[in-house]
Amino acid sequence: MRIIDINNINEAAEVFTKIGVDHYGIGAMAAKTIHLNIFIEKQPCKVANIIKQEMLSVGGDAAVARGSVACSLEASDILLMGTQKQIMKLADKIENQPFGLNKIAADLRRLLHSQGEKEFIFKTAHRKIKISGRTLIMGILNVTPDSFSDGGLFFAQEKAVERGLELAAQGADIIDIGGESTRPGSKTVPMNVELKRVIPVIESLAKKIKIPISIDTKKAVVAARAVDAGAEIVNDISALAADRKMAGTVARKKAGLILMHMRGTPQTMQTGDLRYHDLMGEIVAYLRKSMQKAVNAGVEKESIIVDPGIGFGKTAEDNYRIIRNLSTLRACGVPILIGTSRKSFIGRITQEQPADRSEGTAATVAAAIMNGANILRVHDVAAMKKVAAVTDAIVYA
Questions:
Q1: Helix spans in 213-278 (H)
Q2: Which of 252, 241, 223, 218 is nearest to 291 (CA)?
Q3: Active-site residue flag, 377
Q4: Catalytic residue among 163, 197, 342, 377
């Protein structure tokens, strides 16, 4: 006798097939093996009460605030507890009911669909990138004098191009080029300085490599010039907040777009009260809002990637919690990128300088993949590609 882990419908089907369950039985029972806890924020008490009763009627349960039954509260959060099949039945039962329950039903179905999604097609101006069965590696190329890890090493144009070619040779799937440091406390650089740093490097590399180039910038003009020079992806750490023209620029250029969660700016993000009321909930809500802004401007959803922003307005403990709960970001329905490479939350444990944090980075890389990461932004491409390959073999076995 033993307890087994079943993480998705395919794994459930394998177990049923081994037992010898007939095809109809597999279809009927597979969704019963996946237990989910779904958190719904701030619903009117009448909605909370209906959901509670309907969830009980399908054999699951729902936790609501103590005053919900008497409606002594204006609103209540809700925690749904049940199998995937029970929650699908709940969606069926409430989709035609009033008080906005039809929207909740649609959101539940969308969320359930996203949980099983392991394959994406990511679109840039020049290609469609299949993300399936293998984690992609984004190599970091900082063309700055002051980045936290390798500031100055590749500041000269010739050195930067050489490093870009090296990253490609090591197996990078994407190269991310940045001309402005975003380390804690860093200040923004003038647009003309950033352009002078990155455009010649992008122009040179675009002629020599076949993999896509990403421009790491918050400025719409830099993004536009970079795409014209050969970049295909815009990596905006402000998630469109720093420049109101960025969303329209990305849409017009048909570039891929990476949206990252950050509180404040690089200059202020690690100061003041860093506490979150609901860490993952706030990150998901922020990224969804930014995604909607992008889509409203004309960016296709298939061209969007989200990043939880490790180290950007978070404590060390927050960063580890994000990695452990990374699968929560599947609710966004797009690929997940994460950048943990050599960051200070690793050094806090290993007591090492950035260049010596390879093993600690490897641990975060493996954990991130196992919790849902699709793309890893790293300095040490060759080493982390090996870590990813082995972890992928475990995840996709």
A1: 220-229, 246-253
A2: 241
A3: yes
A4: 377
Q: CA–CA separation, 41 vs 75, rounded Å?
A: 9
The answer to whether residues 86 and 55 touch, using CB atoms and an 8 Å cutoff, is yes
Structure tokens at 217: 């910038």
Spacing of C-alpha 55 from chain mean position: 30
Over residues 101-154, the pLDDT tens digits come to 999 999 999 888 887 667 899 999 899 999 988 999 999 999 987 555 555 566
> Which of 59-73 are b and which e, b meaning 16 or more Cβ less than 10 Å from the residue's Cβ?
ebebbbeeebeeeee
Q: What's this model's pTM, rounded to 2 decimal places?
A: 0.88
CB 253 within 8 A of CB 225: no
Specify whether 32 is catalytic. Answer: no
- Measured over the CA atoms of residue 250, residue 255, residue 256 and residue 260, the dihedral's sign is negative
Strand partners, 140: 176
Cα(218)–Cα(63) distance, integer angstroms: 41
Q: Which amino acid, residue 56?
A: L
Please return the burial class of 41, using the count of CB atoms within 10 Å of its CB with bins 0-12, 13-18 and 19+.
Answer: exposed
Strand 61-63 relative to strand 75-83: parallel, antiparallel, unpaired? Answer: antiparallel
DSSP 336: B
Pairing of strands 256-260, 304-307: parallel
375 forms beta bridges with 136, 337
From 85, 343, 357, 385, the catalytic residue: 343
Domains parsed from the chain with CATH numbers:
1-33 (no CATH), 38-115 (3.30.1370), 119-395 (3.20.20.20)
Q: What is the pLDDT of residues 257-285, one digit of tens each?
A: 999 999 877 777 677 777 888 999 999 99
Based on the number of CB atoms within 10 Å of its own CB, is 244 exposed (0-12), middle (13-18) or buried (19 or more)? exposed
